[in-house]
Design brief:
By secondary structure, the protein is α+β, with helices and mostly antiparallel strands. 53% of the residues lie in helices and 16% in strands.
Length: 334
């Protein structure tokens, strides 16, 4: 495989920096840090460009907070200036990393979101009699820095550029030499890329007839329980060689029983909302209706928000549930 050569000057060219700024600010223009940057945008962008070329960027500018989604997660966000740099990098190498992914890897990839992953899982349930589903223990926290750097070096070249990637990777650690921050653009791409060799190993395993991965949630299908059991043992061993650990809870069942994946209950001939998806639908609908009635958002904003909430349910058999929730909350005249 021919490596892509990347120079710092490619990242720092004015057109790429402008594009990166537009992407970093999209949907966030009213945030205080974004407003401060745009108050003197040309001068600030020139300063950022100069820092990128000279290597004087402060990479440890992280802000952390916790959410429940539904389990507790620590989100680590970079400053707006570093978000621009991350976008500048991904403008140049993002397509290369996307091409490295197999067709059935779905997270953080254009036109390959959760709904397509759900449909692909359902195809596997229909075609083959058994499946096994695993996920990685604290995946982002346990990604090995040196192994990630080695993988990137097999994909890219350019001394200063690779040194820049090393600096980004080493700027955050859960413990020495381990961990990527959830909430960073580069982390999403790197985490998806880290498991691409495991994807190919599973996909080419004898007897495996289907495979889907959404970040660290992995599921594959076979015609017999014997193939599933043997493949599970070998896949766990392969993943441990990648310096990761598979969670002890591993789901291995006949396909007719269905599986919960990406927030949906997937059966061979039906897709249902999970209990969590139902709770979120009701919660967000009530929240936006309350905001509209309090005069905090416009009617157009309310409709856009409802379209977003509604969209997460369209793939599932959920019309009856939506009708019940809307009837209980009461229809409003906008």
């Amino acid at each position: 495989m021919k490596r892509q050569g990347v120079e710092i000057e490619q990242l720092a060219c004015w057109h790429n920096m402008q594009l990166a700024l537009w992407k970093a600010a999209k949907g966030k223009r009213q945030r205080p840090d974004v407003l401060r940057f745009f108050a003197n945008v040309d001068q600030n962008l020139v300063k950022l460009q100069s820092q990128l070329l000279s290597g004087d960027l402060m990479w440890q500018c992280y802000r952390s907070f916790r959410i429940r989604d539904p389990k507790p997660r620590k989100i680590v966000a970079v400053s707006f200036e570093l978000r621009v740099i991350h976008h500048a990098i991904m403008n140049v190498i993002g397509q290369n990393l996307e091409r490295s992914q197999i067709e059935n890897s779905f997270a953080c990839l254009p036109r390959r979101g959760g709904h397509r992953a759900v449909k692909q899982v359902q195809r596997g349930l229909r075609r083959l009699g058994w499946y096994v589903k695993i996920d990685i223990f604290h995946y982002f926290e346990n990604i090995d820095h040196q192994r990630l750097k080695d993988k990137l070096r097999r994909r890219f070249k350019g001394r200063r550029f690779l040194a820049l990637l090393d600096t980004i990777i080493d700027s955050y650690q859960e413990r020495p030499g381990k961990g990527l921050p959830i909430g960073s653009l580069t982390s999403q791409y790197f985490a998806n890329f880290y498991l691409e060799q495991a994807d190919r190993y599973i996909q080419q395993y004898p007897g495996i007839g289907g495979y889907v991965r959404y970040m660290d949630d992995m599921i594959w299908f076979a015609g017999s329980s014997q193939v599933i059991k043997k493949s599970l043992e070998d896949v766990v061993e392969f993943i441990e060689e990648e310096k990761l650990k598979v969670k002890a809870q591993r789901q291995m069942q006949p396909s007719r029983h269905g599986v919960q994946y990406c927030g949906y209950r997937i059966l061979p001939h039906s897709i249902l909302l999970s209990r969590r998806k139902k709770r979120l639908y009701k919660k967000h609908l009530k929240r936006w209706q309350t905001s509209w009635m309090a005069g905090e958002i416009s009617s157009l904003k309310l409709q856009n928000c409802y379209d977003s909430i509604h969209g997460s349910t369209t793939i599932a058999r959920a019309a009856g549930y939506r009708g019940i929730v809307l009837a209980k909350l009461g229809f409003i005249d906008v």
